[in-house]
Design goal:
Blueprint: E1 6-11, H1 20-33, E2 38-43, H2 45-48, H3 55-71, E3 80-83, H4 89-98, H5 103-107, H6 110-119, H7 126-141, E4 146-149, H8 154-171, E5 179-182, H9 216-224, H10 242-254, H11 259-265, H12 271-298, H13 300-329
Parallel strand pairs: 1-2, 2-3, 4-5
This protein binds adenosine-5'-triphosphate (ATP) and L-tryptophanamide (LTN).
Adenosine-5'-triphosphate is lined by residues 11-12, 14, 21-22, 24-26, 149-150, 183, 187-189, 198-202.
């Protein structure tokens, strides 16, 4: 048992590759945090099925997501990187939390409102409605102190805090109250073709996405075609030059330099030069991650072994919390 503070975060296996926004906005921070926290990173495949998924694709993407995290620096010896469906306590605690959540309270979740409005109420599953309580279970089972997430998940972490406080006051102290750690706005990456919108795996077109698993030739092409502007100056100005500013952010973050120093280096030079240099840096960053991901995927037995080992650790911690919950509520244990 370590006495480091605990972090928990989750990622949905909903895409064929992570993009540079996920990498800069989330993953690099998780890699840093695993040094000072007792870290749990969960591939939340149960959350993924709240919207329709192709079964073969879901299974493949679950392994692929885990492999990319390991390839990018999540160390399975330091962090517990596991698959949600390997730990039954998540669904078991979610059920108990459902019973202490108000119907109206769950109905106020903006992610549910947005998604159900988009798909229509008949096409929205009850699973989509109960998604936040499953997320609360994820966090509370491990007694997490800190939950690193994007701004869009703040409301779900707030609900988690409310449910934990409600349970504690009704049944006696059981859960640590978690604090959200919201990712910095400066780490936000925008679509290369539409630099006013956040880069997102659900974007309409692939052309604006820099994916970790893309071939370097594809990455270079996407960068060379990235939308800029007509004034030809390499200068950070989010409002008037969103395209160039986005490329400058990516360049600075990946080369561990300030935006100013990159700006100075390219002062008076053309966009073409700048983009070529950026494409090289992106390739240098992504090539080892892509190679390592492919190696891990080439040996699925070894990848499964890593995930099963982590799941054993996760099950041990999660079952401890679940047993306490069952005792407190008066549910007979297995
Ligand atoms: P979707 O399009 O399905 O919403 P996404 O690409 O936005 O997916 P998520 O799975 O929602 O990605 O997010 C995973 C993590 O990556 C979150 O912590 C989120 O804050 C971060 N992230 C996602 N997109 C960006 C971005 N463009 N810039 C910075 N961070 C991002
Ligand atoms: N809902 C989150 C993923 C997620 C999560 C979690 C994040 C599921 N369970 C627990 C933090 C903690 C998302 O869509 N990004």
């Amino acid at each position: 048992m370590s006495n480091k503070p605990i972090i928990f975060s989750g990622m949905q296996p909903s895409s064929g590759s992570l993009h540079i926004g996920n990498y800069i906005g989330a993953l690099t921070q998780w890699v840093e945090m695993q040094e000072t926290f007792d870290a749990y990173f969960c591939v939340v495949n149960l959350h993924a099925i709240t919207v329709p998924q192709d079964p073969a694709e879901l299974a493949a993407r679950t392994r692929l997501t885990a492999a990319q995290y390991i390839a990018a620096g999540i160390d399975p010896e330091k962090s517990t990187l596991f698959v949600q469906s390997h730990v039954p306590a998540h669904t078991e605690l979610a059920w108990v939390l459902n019973t202490i959540t108000g119907f109206g309270e769950a109905g106020r979740m903006t992610q549910f409102k947005d998604k159900s409005q988009r798909h229509g109420s008949d096409k929205s599953s009850v699973g989509l409605f109960t998604y936040p309580m499953l997320m609360a279970a994820d966090i509370l089972l491990y007694q997490a102190n800190t939950v690193p997430v994007g701004e869009d998940q703040r409301q779900h972490v707030e609900l988690t805090r409310n449910l934990a406080e409600r349970f504690n006051s009704r049944y006696g102290h059981t859960f640590t109250i978690p604090t959200p750690q919201i990712q910095k706005e400066t780490a936000k990456i925008y679509d290369l073709q539409d630099p006013e919108s956040k880069m997102s795996k659900s974007a309409a077109s692939e052309a604006g996405l820099l994916s970790i698993l893309d071939d370097p030739a594809v990455t270079t092409k996407k960068i060379m075609r990235a939308v800029t502007d007509a004034d030809g100056e390499i200068r950070f100005d989010r409002e008037n030059k969103p395209g160039v500013s986005n490329l400058l952010t990516i360049f600075a973050v990946l080369s561990h330099r300030s935006v100013e120093s990159v700006q100075n280096e390219f002062a008076g030079r053309g966009y073409g030069d700048f983009k070529k240099a950026l494409a090289e840096i992106v390739a240098e960053t992504f090539t080892p991650i892509r190679n390592r991901t492919n190696e891990l995927l080439d040996d699925p037995a070894e990848l499964d072994r890593i995930l099963f080992t982590a799941a054993e650790r996760a099950n041990a911690t999660a079952n401890q919390t679940l047993n306490t919950v069952y005792d407190r509520v008066g549910l007979l244990r297995r």
